[in-house]
């Protein structure tokens, strides 16, 4: 595999941390999590001094697990996802003139990395821009595109990934990172996979990284006639909370001829 360009793993934009759609400010979430970790650690110490060694050991394991999981999530948000996608995108061996689509692009972590690899092409991001605790919005993505120096070849669209308003065979590559699992139900997830395959050009490639439902994505792609379908776990850089919640990558190719 080719070595990823350093700029892919060291972005210049402001991408925040991965969060959910509950409108609780990220500092409040992390502050609460730190308090839980501290409480677990203090409880373990108190139990140890009280002579309850077994309970103290259990409490210590819980505290260390919580701290490790929190550290893993933070690292994934700040560095891990960029390292993972730098390798995934580099492995595609892009010529530089492709048109790339990112489903659920958020603040542009993957979208803008792809844009750096297509100086003569374009990178298109779609999202519904639903506000979340990290400040997800189109303006934040545009600001990041400017910070990364790729704004001139980036397009952003407010669009539902289950009903893309693009013609068939519009893109050479379709990517998605930790987005499809957020859709409400398997029917919607199947529709997103179907749409991704529809807008791919014959011979085009799909790369989806997610923390859930990846077996379903792979099965759906095979059902819809995609070729070279693979599913694999990424290494520790893709752990979203220690090995408890791993990132899996599904790849596929759209057949050049219809089945």
Automatic annotation (TrEMBL):
One of its GO terms (molecular function) is methyltransferase activity. The keyword Nucleotidyltransferase does not apply. PROSITE patterns: UBIE_2. Residues 101-208 form the Methyltransferase type domain. InterPro entries: Methyltransf_11, SAM-dependent_MTases_sf, UbiE/COQ5_MeTrFase_CS. SUPFAM superfamilies: S-adenosyl-L-methionine-dependent methyltransferases. Keywords: Membrane, Methyltransferase, S-adenosyl-L-methionine, Transferase, Transmembrane, Transmembrane helix. The chain crosses the membrane at residues 21-47, 53-74. GO terms for biological process: methylation. It comes from the Bacteria. This is Class I SAM-dependent methyltransferase. It comes from Mycolicibacillus parakoreensis.
């Amino acid at each position: 595999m080719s070595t990823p360009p350093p700029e892919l793993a060291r972005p210049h934009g402001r991408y925040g941390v991965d969060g959910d759609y509950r409108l609780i400010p990220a500092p409040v979430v992390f502050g609460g999590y730190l308090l839980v970790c501290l409480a677990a650690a203090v409880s373990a110490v108190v139990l140890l001094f009280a002579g309850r060694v077994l309970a103290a050991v259990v409490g210590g394991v819980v505290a260390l697990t919580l701290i490790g999981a929190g550290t893993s999530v933070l690292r994934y948000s700040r560095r891990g996802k960029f390292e993972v996608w730098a390798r995934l995108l580099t492995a595609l061996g892009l010529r530089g003139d492709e048109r790339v689509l990112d489903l659920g692009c958020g603040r542009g972590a993957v979208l803008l990395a792809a844009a750096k690899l297509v100086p003569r092409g374009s990178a298109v991001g779609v999202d519904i821009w639903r506000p979340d605790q990290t400040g997800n919005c189109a303006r934040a993505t545009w600001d990041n595109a400017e910070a990364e120096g790729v704004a001139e070849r980036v397009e952003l669209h407010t669009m539902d990934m289950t009903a893309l308003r693009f013609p068939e065979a519009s893109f050479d590559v379709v990517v998605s990172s930790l987005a499809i699992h957020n859709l409400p139900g398997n029917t919607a997830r199947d529709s997103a996979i179907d749409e991704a395959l529809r807008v791919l050009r014959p011979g085009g490639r799909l790369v989806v990284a997610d923390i859930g439902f990846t077996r379903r994505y792979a099965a759906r792609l095979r059902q819809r006639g995609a070729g070279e379908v693979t599913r694999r776990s990424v290494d520790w850089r893709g752990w979203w909370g220690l090995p408890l919640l791993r990132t899996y990558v599904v790849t596929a190719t759209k057949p050049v001829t219809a089945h």
